[in-house]
Amino acid sequence: MAAPETSTAAVPTLYTYNTLRNAFGGVLSFFILLLIGVMAFSIRLFSVIKYESVIHEFDPYFNYRVTQFLAKNGIYEFWNWFDDRTWYPLGRVIGGTVYPGLTLTAGTIWWLLNSLNIPLSVETVCVFTAPIFSAFASWATYLLTKEVKGTGAGLTAAALLAMVPSYISRSVAGSYDNEAVAIFALIFTFYLYIKTLNTGSLFYATLNSIAYFYMVCSWGGYTFIINLIPMHVLLCIVTGRFSSRLYIAYAPLVVLGTLLAALVPVVGFNAVMTSEHFASFLVFIIIHVVAFVYYIKGILSPKMFKVAVTLVVSVGLAVCCAVIAVLIALVASSPTKGWSGRSLSLLDPTYASKYIPIIASVSEHQPPTWPSYFMDINVLAFLVPAGIIACFLPLSDASSFVVLYIATSVYFSGVMVRLMLVLAPAACITSGIALSQAFDVFTGSIKFQLTGASSNTEVDAAETSSSTAESQTDAVKTEKPEETAKNRPSRKSKKKEREHGEKPSTKAKAEKKRLLALPLESSVISLLLLVLLGAFYVVHCVWAAAEAYSAPSIVLTSRSHDGLHVFDDFREAYAWLRHNTDVDDKVASWWDYGYQTTAMANRTVIVDNNTWNNTHIATVGTAMSSPERAAWEIFHSLDVKYVLVVFGGLVGYPSDDINKFLWMVRIGGGVFPHIKEPDYLRDGQYRIDSQATPTMLNCLMYKLSYYRFVETDGKGFDRVRQTEIGKKYFKLTHFEEAFTTHHWMVRIYKLKPPKNRIRGKTKKSKSKTSSTTSSPKRSGTKKKNPWQ
Amino acid sequence: MADHFFTFSIITLSLFVVASSGGLESELVADLLTLQAESKSGVIHLDDRTVSKFLTSPRTPRPYSFLIFFDAANFHDKPELRLRELRREFEIVASSFITNHNSSNTKLFFGDIEFRESQSSFQLFGVNSLPHVRLVGPTAKSLKDDSDVMDQGDFSRLAESMAEFVQYRTKLTVGPIHRPPALSKMQLGLITALLLLCLPLVAKRIFAGETLLHDPKIWLSGAVFVYFFSVSGAMHNIIRKMPMFLVDRNNPNKLVFFYQGSGMQLGAEGFAVGFLYTFVGLLLAFVTHVLVYVKDATAKRLAMLFTLLVSFWAVKKVILLDNWKTGYGIHGFWPSSWN
């Protein structure tokens, strides 16, 4: 392994040449990295170019609103923010229930820009946070992969990560969500862990804890880190790779990291009290025991050590048993054994589908099929196995971490399609390693054959283009035990050797290895095919970024024969609410639209996408599933002035409220048993045509969606359900239409004011509604005489 | 007074009738109890004769209800009907009911009818599709029209939902469901004994540092296997209980291995593509890490040829399959002057 060092020492001219080459390589890598960053940023701008600079979807609107608040009121106000614009009349403590990382990051960027007199709006900063952090993430990938397998692999991995579709899907411009910064934090934490592991420096260990803290601030997925790193530590201990560097990499992370994590309000004492974190504490104990054993082993003679081992084993076992018993008792005392439902469904994949329908129902919690992998990591799926094998040749602490990372993340992604996002960096790292080594081998073969084929025979040739892989593999083959021993301490020499090995050098003839090259023509063809594969990857990623993942879902477009249609109904509706209703009016809608309503219309909502109170959601679901009068009473009791429904029947927008309606019924029925799902189904089928059940045709959702719908085409043909609606002509008694957008996608209704209590009239209405279910609230007005 | 006498006579009269028929009924119940005791799970096996004896012949109201599972041994191998599983669950409900009532409840009996041996009973009940569970109440005159059919929805949560159905319809409580433990006590003891025996050996090897865990090859194959397992969507197959392949509806001799539409996949399809994903990677690793060190030039050439052809074919196949399955038209964005 130390071959290059001896060679450079032997030949001084060579030394200067090499430093020059290294410097050149360094500058080149720097510019390549810069370009990779530019690419990562710019490939995510399709959404801005095709649509406009706008925040996407639902959750980002909430983050945007929080950031606005932070920018306006400052950090302390933000920390103590009680939001009364949502979950009316309960409200929500925002400061204590959000992961503040993203908001603080964007807020800081905005503050920094403004103090530099660059007057960007908060919205612009929010829109472009995700692309900026994608560039950071690809640089972090470079650093991480470089620690594992050298600069070449690092650059390849960074380039792959810059455009991996899975990551693009969560980080296009405008997608202002936690994952945007969290993936960067994840990779960077892993990098610092590996760096500490390789150097044994306490400085990096401290940085690692701080990076972990940033990750905890940013995303609930930090539990992946705090389980993966202990797993790796345990793996190292079990396979006899314990070292002081491992101790330094791990112990400060657990102590500092846990303390820091507990500072984040949303995590708080969860950092020490939930089962997701217990693995790290268990391994923390184990690593101390192991370190102690190694220490004792060092100071005692072998014979004394044996005596000590028997002593320690007996005492240690007792202590371990006690600790484990306490842990088990702690875990068993909580109903879910201390695990959250989502974590449990990762461990037992069939758990969610059996017990938690609400987790199982979310589309991003579904298990993926093979096309999902091809869509999200594309050709990397072919390269990963080669990368895994490369990590084993030779197996170092760092490469074993990569193997563990890819194995766990690929398993988790198999359970939940959402975790494909965690797999993507691992896939990029391993594919980067595989690609870079393959390129090394093929280009090396070509160069060797072109330059040396005439003079040397293949077998005896001193390999000129020793790639890291080849030299290392060779070393493994011939002198494995020595290699593993040397591998770790001689980081510096290894690094030099790597940089040296990156570029083919005809001068390294001192390496008398019997490395062989591949046939020329097949190398050329393989190289071409690999380039073709890469080109296909680029085409796929650009297509995915441009077509599949850039739609903001707040503005919709459709392309028909007569050109491009833009459906901007959502913003139209929210703008109407903002300008035509009173500031303190309450708007009821299904929870999907809660965040958007508060952020864009600035009106108070009853429920929103932070689904923390099931009863409240069920109340709205019940109102939507009830007949008009009962619904009016529920809404009136909640102080609601306007009801907003999303209707796609006119333009064929499939994710509208009618299609979500069964969930409203289910969730409503879960709390209020008088709402029964079978009442809305005809023979188990959900339909809205003339075969629909009377309950369905009389419920509020149906009426608000299809009110006056027949006036559009005379038949009332629903383009989403592909059928004519069942009840076409009806009047609303307790609601009045306030506003319907251009394409009828959003319809806003106003609750009629309560009627004057004229004696005759109340009686009349009472007799009318006596057959339907009326809420018990009104029972006060009914003077029921059993003798009548 | 006369009025009173009249009532009294009616009561005595009806008592007499009840008593006379009661003798026959109690005989039937006793028969059923013995049959129930004979059966292992408490499910009484019915055939045409016993159906007429216990259900058609006695006058209504019968003193008991009957929950009947319609079984067909020749359909047991059809996984989509789930007959075996449902039957097992049915037996669990039956045995739980019996143990919870100490075998003394004579209001409800559980029975099963096999299609081959009692076809006329199937006709009698008008059963033409499986799985089928029916509750014959005490007052049901016509077995076909008066009895309650258990819906698909009542099977969904297996024994628990069947028990709810029984409680809802008969007003009899089933009580807690007793499932047999996954491992019997005997097996559990055996496993513990084996573990205890192995413990010293394992401990010794761990201290010596020569376990399987120290062999990178194990880790390597494990990691590659996990990768193959996940990218083939095996988790999807397990969670959704997807079959390996389907039989073509139009042509029963033809098997469908590939399902069009990206939301779903069949088992064999996933494994085939997962294999292609993994295999190409392994070939690449083979070329970069093994083939380089082969000395024989022709062997090298042949292996390279093979690798290139297979990899090219596999990648092309996956791309085409993906295009076919998802229907996405993936295209490049070229300068418009090129068109």
TrEMBL record, chain A:
The chain crosses the membrane at residues 23-43, 93-113, 125-144, 150-168, 180-205, 211-235, 247-272, 278-296, 308-332, 379-407, 524-546. Pathway: Protein modification; protein glycosylation. It is a multi-pass membrane protein. Residues 476-486, 496-508 have a biased composition (Basic and acidic residues). Pfam families: STT3, STT3-PglB_core. Residues 27-429 form the Oligosaccharyl transferase STT3 N-terminal domain. Residues 459-475, 768-778 have a biased composition (Low complexity). This is dolichyl-diphosphooligosaccharide--protein glycotransferase. It comes from Gossypium darwinii (Darwin's cotton).
From TrEMBL, chain B:
Keywords: Endoplasmic reticulum, Membrane, Signal, Transmembrane, Transmembrane helix. Residues 1-21 form the signal peptide. InterPro entries: OligosaccharylTrfase_OST3/OST6. The chain crosses the membrane at residues 188-207, 219-239, 271-294, 301-319. One of its GO terms (biological process) is protein N-linked glycosylation via asparagine. It is a multi-pass membrane protein. The keyword Endoplasmic reticulum applies. It comes from the Eukaryota. It is found in: Endoplasmic reticulum membrane. Belongs to the OST3/OST6 family. Subunit of the oligosaccharyl transferase (OST) complex that catalyzes the initial transfer of a defined glycan (Glc(3)Man(9)GlcNAc(2) in eukaryotes) from the lipid carrier dolichol-pyrophosphate to an asparagine residue within an Asn-X-Ser/Thr consensus motif in nascent polypeptide chains, the first step in protein N-glycosylation. N-glycosylation occurs cotranslationally and the complex associates with the Sec61 complex at the channel-forming translocon complex that mediates protein translocation across the endoplasmic reticulum (ER). All subunits are required for a maximal enzyme activity. Component of the oligosaccharyltransferase (OST) complex. This is Dolichyl-diphosphooligosaccharide--protein glycosyltransferase subunit 3B. It comes from Gossypium barbadense.
